[in-house]
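TA notes, week 10

Several of you asked for a full example with nothing omitted. So below is the full record: structure tokens for the whole chain, then the designed sequence directly under it. When grading your own attempts, check the secondary structure regions first.
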């Protein structure tokens, strides 16, 4: 589906990037380090899970795929942002912009669904341990991950199909670090009501279902843990899903912070960092492997074994 035939603009200008040369160099250095840590940390997690037989269980099967999604999520936009930090002309082609939006939606949808699958896994382990292996067999785990990617693909494709019908004339300035669907709709010279309805409807269907699954799982998990009489038993049960709870909490907290932060406490650096963080998740993919490594005894043990071999 060619884009150029439908548009008069061939590229967009990303204006959210700082024009201060010193700030650009600082941000380039910061996000280059974050990106390298993200790649390194998630690759290590994937290698450890793949090579250690003790980690061949449903929880770490999902964690393996979450690490893969985190690498994809960061790689969709961060390399282009790093290039633009140092480039004189901070532009992206129309084709590149639409492709970037597709992969952002794909990665975001897959991550949300995989986190929901991990919440269900913890529910099965804590609330129904006797039937855990039946509920979370290898076949079911594969189906959950495949379903996450298929659902995310149709979520992204649905929005992109309608985006390809838009025409862009006049202003080609995007006030963001990367291409996002809502800012792009604002630049269209054709009616975008259909796009907005499709975006809202698909988000409510796909996003709400993932959130509700996590919420219901947490309600059952917390109620089950509170019924455990011994403090030691409650602590052990809580530790089995605390990592996942921290990761989900971090994701939604940063979203809440981004949309409610007060102008009195914001600064140029904070505004830049948090805008990037939630626009296409720079910090979360870096923190995920660190959180799971610190909170999981099995992962720490497997890491020590791998380091001894090296």
């Amino acid at each position: 589906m060619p884009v150029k035939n439908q548009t008069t603009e061939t590229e967009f200008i990303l204006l959210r990037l700082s024009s201060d040369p010193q700030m650009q160099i600082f941000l380039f250095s910061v996000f280059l380090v974050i990106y390298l840590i993200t790649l390194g940390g998630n690759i290590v997690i994937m290698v450890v899970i793949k090579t250690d037989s003790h980690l061949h269980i449903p929880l770490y099967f999902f964690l393996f795929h979450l690490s893969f999604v985190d690498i994809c999520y960061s790689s969709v936009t961060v390399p282009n942002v790093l290039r633009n930090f140092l480039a004189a002309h901070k532009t992206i082609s129309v084709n590149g912009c639409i492709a970037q939006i597709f992969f952002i939606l794909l990665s975001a949808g897959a991550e949300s669904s995989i986190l929901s699958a991990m919440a269900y896994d913890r529910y099965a382990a804590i609330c129904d341990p006797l039937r855990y292996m039946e509920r979370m067999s290898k076949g079911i785990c594969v189906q959950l991950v495949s379903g996450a990617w298929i659902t995310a693909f149709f979520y992204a494709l649905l929005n992109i199909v309608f985006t390809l019908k838009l025409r862009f004339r006049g202003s080609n300035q995007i006030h963001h670090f990367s291409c996002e669907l809502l800012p792009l709709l604002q630049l269209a010279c054709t009616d975008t009501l259909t796009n907005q309805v499709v975006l809202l409807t698909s988000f409510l269907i796909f996003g709400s279902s993932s959130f509700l699954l996590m919420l219901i799982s947490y309600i059952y998990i917390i109620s089950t843990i509170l019924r455990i009489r011994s403090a030691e038993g409650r602590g052990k049960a809580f530790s089995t899903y605390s990592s996942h709870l921290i990761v989900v909490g971090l994701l939604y907290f940063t979203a809440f912070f981004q949309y409610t932060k007060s102008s009195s406490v914001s600064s140029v650096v904070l505004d830049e960092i948090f805008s990037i963080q939630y626009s296409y998740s720079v910090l979360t993919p870096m923190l995920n492997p660190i959180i799971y490594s610190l909170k999981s005894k099995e992962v720490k043990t497997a890491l020590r074994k791998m380091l001894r071999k090296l």
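Residues 94-127 form the longest helix (34 residues). Use that as a sanity check on your answer.
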